[in-house]
Amino acid sequence: MSLILGLDSSTQSLSALIIDPERGQIVAEESVNFGKDLPQFGMESGFLAGGVEGEVHSNPQMWLDALDLVFQRLKDAGAPLDQIEAVSGSGQQHGSVYLKEGFGQALAELRPDASLADQLASIFSRSSSPIWMDTSTGQQCAEITQAAGGAEEVCRRSGSIAIERFTGPQIRKFSQIEPAAYEVTGVIHLVSSFLASVLAGKSVAIDTGDGAGMNLMNLATADWDEVLLGATAPDLKSKLPPVAPASSVAGTISTYFSEKFGLNPECQVVLWSGDNPCSLVGMGASQPGKVVISLGTSDTLFAAMAEPLTDPRGYGHVFGNPLGGNMSLICFRNGSLAREAVKDRFELSWADFDAEGLARTEPGNGQKVILPFVGDEITPRVSSQDFVPVGWAGEPTPDEWVRGVLEGQFLNMKRHSDWLGVETEEVLLTGGASENDGIAQIAADVFGKKVRRLSVAGSAALGAAMRAAVAMGADIDKLEAAFSAPALGRDVLPRSENAETYRDLEKVFAQALKNSFNLA
Ligand code: ADP
Ligand code: XUL
């Protein structure tokens, strides 16, 4: 009994990872792709296409079928399910599940001879679940902001200003458009706490990591905030589970799973958390001092924080760090999409973004910048139709465009993460574009820090497993050394000869933002 299971219910798939914390090994991996493996739900990418006015919903019954299927696959593959000591999980953040009174009872009565989805079919008070991609609650955000005393106050309390995809505004909308269904809702869960409840066979708590993505939890007290509850929807407190630290053990695994799939009946269920909080752990960055930058479709920057500071400009978010304290999450919408736009516009290749290509221009482009927003941006919140070169006498050359946009992206990240209040020792780079040495060098130079590359695939499931292992007494440093080690020989050091250039360029960038978008 020494293995640990981590699950990750993301937008498009549910994956499972079994680790042996003592040996530092991955023992088994399986996954279920919602579109491919559960085509009966008609959600090719895990959500319903064609939602009106920014609505993006998914189907909680699909998540239940996926849970059954992933355990069946583990069992069929001969995974040692009877040796799993603890399980935890990661859920796409912000998504919400609406359940009638009696949810806990229904879970306690689950029989192994029928599926989860069939047995729980009548327990939902709302058949679909809004997810993080939903942008339909602008009006509700404005109403909550007004009722709670302004954007700064909402941010001070919850760690973020009112955000469309966050759960509070989503709940408010549901209470307004379907008041009768809201009325009969007994409990509202997040994707994470919903699936943790199913595993535990009872309705369990929401953890502080994912709970902070609701605009409902008070960061300082790590509990529901009366002012925000009151500003959001009637009688809301009675419809929310309690908040608890992510390290809490919710109970032992439901007999549904031990009888049906052969899990050990003593297997402990540790609370689930959100995917970003779990990734923080999986990336080996749960202790303050490291900043993770993920260069994916969008870029994200996250870091463990020593103090629960909030972003004075209102762009970044603060969530609970599942291993204690807090973490920041900052999203930059113009990530790879913007890099690809430059590449396509000038018919370049990724080699032009690499060391060789970048050698054709000078660091800092002679103290000229390009504001790197090919489309609307959320950090900073600006509406933009194209990149803005600032201070250029003529049109930049394609090589200057490449350098300008990359430098602009990292300068923008540095500027908008200056409120974190952590002394960064190193920057951990991950995501598709992190492979590129030229891009990594610009990151190192702009931040003035050592950049390390991580090749952890599936950091959310891994982080969930590592959290469960820590809850069972494993040492986080040992786990990080075994599972989250930076790729060997791929560190990039900042070049001291460029330090002054980039310090000056930061000021040029700040001035350009101010002049072009009227931003402080
Ligand atoms: P996501 O998980 O958001 O789908 P990934 O982290 O997988 O994204 O990153 C994929 C992106 O990485 C691609 O769309 C591409 O723009 C970018 N990418 C891949 N290779 C390179 C490279 N060598 N240099 C720069 N960008 C790259
Ligand atoms: C974070 C966010 C996304 C989802 C993706 O605020 O909305 O990263 O968690 O699953």
Automatic annotation (TrEMBL):
Matching SUPFAM superfamilies: Actin-like ATPase domain
GO biological process: D-xylose metabolic process; xylulose metabolic process
Gene Ontology cellular component annotations, sorted alphabetically: cytosol
The keyword Transferase belongs to this UniProt entry's keyword annotation: yes
Family annotation (PANTHER family): SUGAR KINASE, XYLULOSE KINASE
Family: Belongs to the FGGY kinase family.
Name by which UniProt lists this protein: Xylulokinase
Native source organism of the sequence: Roseibacillus persicicus
